């Protein structure tokens, strides 16, 4: 095939390529474009090279959700969690000048630079729940969002938020966010707490709920008693904040 014919063929291919998200060599190969040819097209300016095996269309602008959908194909269990999930569901205390995404997943990984340069984010693979928890419990796309992007439901997002207390998350803000939550589904929260393995998270949920007389206080207290631990759970977080949680 001549170079001219190849160029015409690629121009025809452009119409089928998604906008707003990266393109993997696998996706290009599925459309008949080899990895070798993709590399050549990048050198000639028809594609923009982002990282090994990752490209984008020249002049395109990567969207947050398109990029998250791309990452979710490579990262088992990737979802938007914690404070970001609460904010996306309308529960927030402050509006950040530039959003910082809290991402969770099942396996450790480093977020690619092409993503974090455009969308400041942190990623963690903290094992908050045991292996018996149904994989997608408490994970749903937003009603008006990209169906490929999973976001923690309020019940799961709250527990992820509490897990972050003492790391980069202050207890004061966490308490305010928990107090702002309304309409938590006790059945879902019960399922999640039943599989939560972190004493700190369960005890903090019980402490907050009891102190603020929230409707699910008895539920959280029951799980705090189930998971056990000493009469006091004390730790100093990375921020230097002292966490002193007494058994309810």
Please give a structural write-up.
It is a single chain. By secondary structure, the chain is α+β, with helices and mostly antiparallel strands. It has two domains: 3-56; 64-246, no CATH class. The chain is built from eleven helices and ten strands. The chain has a three-stranded antiparallel beta sheet. Strands 4-5-6 form a three-stranded mixed beta sheet. Helix 5 runs antiparallel to helix 7 (154-164) and helix 7 crosses helix 10 (199-211). It is elongated. Residues 1-5 have low confidence and may be disordered.
The count of domains is: 2
What Rg is obtained from the alpha carbons, in whole angstroms? 22 Å
**Widest sheet, order of strands:** 1-3-2
- The averaged pLDDT comes out at 89
Quaternary status? single chain
Distance between the termini: 74 Å
Q: Unreliable segments (pLDDT under 50, ≥5 consecutive)?
A: 1-5
Query: So how many helices?
Result: 11
**Topology order in helix (H) and strand (E) letters:** HEHHEEHEHEHEEEHHHHHEE
Name the overall outline. Answer: elongated
Q: Helicity, in percent?
A: 40-55%
